[in-house]
Prior knowledge:
By secondary structure, the protein is an all-beta fold. Helices cover about 0% and strands about 65% of the residues.
Amino acid sequence: MYAVIKSGGKQHRVEPGEVLRLEKVQAEPGTLIDFDNVMMVGEGADVKIGAPFVDGSKVSAEVVAHGRHDKVTIIKMKRRKHYRRQAGHRQWYTEVKIKEIVGG
Length: 104
C-alpha cells in the first residue's frame, strides 16, 4: 500500500517502512505524528484520489532525527563592475519513518 501526503508545501509518495526527509516538524525524536493531508491512497489497481484530500485516511510516522542538509552556495557577480556577493544556506529537515497507512 502507498499514499501521497502533503507536508511542508510538498507532496511525497510514501510506503510503510520508508524513511524520508521532510521540512522541519516540531516534534521530539521517538514521537509518533499523524499526517491527515493524504491526497491519494492506493494498492495495486485500487486507488482512491481525494478532492483535495481522501476522507478518513491518515499516515502514521515516527520521528527519527532532526538535521540540516548540505550547504547550498549562492553567488552573484557582475563582470567589470566590482560587484560580487556570496551567501550560503543549510535547510533544516526532520527524518521520519512511515509506520502505517490507514485508507479511507
